Amino acid sequence: MSTEHRPPHPDAHRALDPVLARLTERDQQGVSAFYFELRLEEAGYLAGLEAAGVVPVAHDPNPFDPVKEGGSYQQWWAEHSQERGAYQQQVTSRQEALHYLHLGVVLASLAEDEPNRLHALFPVMGISRADLKARLHYEDATLEELDDTAMREIAGKLEEAYVELGFWEHLDIVAEEVLACKRRINTKE
């Protein structure tokens, strides 16, 4: 069996330009690595991807809690530079793997046919501790009590509340507004 390698067609890069442009556009539309990781976890895929070695696990070797024992946490890292370097490499490897998985999902969505595009999801909103500080005037001590699990719980409850208390009504109003604007622009052209 021959494994002959043919040189790429001279216009191959031109054929990829629209795909790469759409990939870049979709990748920059606000779906953060954190949001993508959260979606994988919520869907029950993250643990399997970690177990299979597709997504590397980053184990923080620091025995101190960064929120409750911030000074000790920082001091431990200052005294353990070798461990810090290894941990940073693990985090970088994990982020790269998640980035490539996300690009794969985006690429797959670009290849979908029209009926499947009907079910494409677009993020609506997110929440951060900075939101709680700015809008609710939470003190730093209060924010320290909210670990990532608590923040995910707040986000989940907000999502449920929004769906129950106005999401569909707002969707109708906003979608009609965007369509009307788009139609006005198209009729001017």
Please write out the topology:
Elements: H1 12-27, H2 33-42, H3 46-51, H4 70-79, H5 81-110, H6 114-117, H7 129-136, H8 140-144, H9 148-188
Describe the structure in your own words.
The chain is mostly helical and 189 residues long. It has a domain at 17-115. It is 69% helix and 0% strand. It contains nine helices and no strands. It has helices spanning 12-27, 33-42, 46-51, 70-79, 81-110, 114-117, 129-136, 140-144, 148-188. Helix 1 packs across helix 5. The chain is extended. The mean pLDDT is 80.
For the structure shown, list the relevant keywords.
extended; 9 helices; 189 residues; single chain; mainly alpha
Task: Please report which band the strand proportion falls in: under 5%, 5-15%, 15-25%, 25-35%, 35-45% or over 45%.
Answer: under 5%
Task: Specify the structural class.
Answer: mainly alpha
Q: List segments where confidence is low: pLDDT < 50 over at least 5 consecutive residues.
A: none
Overall radius of gyration: 22 Å
What would you call the shape?
Answer: extended
First CA to last CA: what distance? 57 Å
Biggest sheet features = none
Mean pLDDT: 80
Order of helices and strands: HHHHHHHHH
Helical content class = 55-70%
Tally of DSSP helical segments: 9
- The total beta strand count reads 0
Sum this structure up briefly.
This protein has a domain at 17-115. Helices cover 69% and strands 0% of the residues.
